[in-house]
Amino acid sequence: MHLTLHLTRNCNLRCDYCYAKPESSEIMSLETGQKAMRLGVKRNFGSCGVVFFGGEPLLAKDRIYELVEFGRNIQKNKEGMFHFKITTNGLLLDEAFLEYACREEMLVAMSYDGINKVQDMHRKTADERLTSDLLLPKLRMLLDARPYSSILMVVNPDTAKYLCESVSFLLDEGARYIIVSLNYAGQWDDDSFSILEQQYKKLAKLYIKWTEMGKKFYLSPFEVKISLHINESQSNCLRCDLGMRQLSVDPQGYLYPCVQFTRAGGQSQWCIGDVENGINPEAWTRIRKAAIKPKDNCSKCVLEKRCFHTCACLNWQTTGSIETVSPLLCRHEQMLMPIADKVAETLYAKRNSEFINKHYNDAYPMLSLLEDQLSSA
Q1: Which of 28, 232, 240, 253 has the fewest C-beta atoms lying within 10 Å of its C-beta?
Q2: Do 239 and 311 contact (CB within 8 A), yes or no?
Q3: Which pLDDT score, from 0 to 100, does residue 120 have?
Q4: Residue 192 pLDDT
């Protein structure tokens, strides 16, 4: 399990698909963060991943430093173990913090949507300035220090036509780990979906080309769909399992089963407790029962075990219910899987060693990292 600490609801960017509140100045107190971390360690049998989240967590840098120090002291006393990660828009990322993150072995994930035109379309500063010129140097700084940092890329209906160009751009900049996500709250229609499908097909050809060239990269959503096709038993590990693998904490200390639900507030039905009293078993059980309830029309679908219809956050965001599958998600999954399967079939038929190692060798991530380290020594 990992613990997501929403250090602040405030953000220094205005993203069209973000629910952060730029007018908020609230920051999670040190006491609240400490209690959350104690709870996370206790619930996860002594080991806990902590994700600093927002809003924009780097608006609360001092709180990050304090909580990491708190975690390290717990480790010194052999009372628990913590692994840290931060998800940032990058605006406040600097060399000093990056050095600190490397020293503390803190993973850094940065949001960046692609080519300059795409980045500027939906991510602006609070005073409406474009962000590509501000953030591209930050992206390069991060990738120079940590090439395997996750780059989080959001695709909107009006940016879908730039998907291939944007992924290629990020790879050329040195990104190795790219997470592509749709803005499911966007105004998708037949035309934009058709454009997205053509971009996926074009990206599939590039995926094959890059793999045959020996280029190392991770590109969702292709990788997950291929992995689930090869090993369906991984479905419970790779898909949403609401309330089981993560716990989100808002600035006031209220607990939720996933990151999206914090916007509902501590008095909502999605709150499952607080850092003072822990998880409310009745609230947790009620939400779990609703989350695992079989979805209408899904049980007979041949794609059911590979589909992300179990994502409670996404279903709630698009339909208002965690029990109702998003029609947009359903359409996207049915479109994507045959394209991903074609990629896998092509590369497997050629017995491509890079592809086979990536998807059939559990030791591949570590071996790949060691190989990179040796080649750069």
Answers
A1: 232
A2: yes
A3: 96
A4: 97
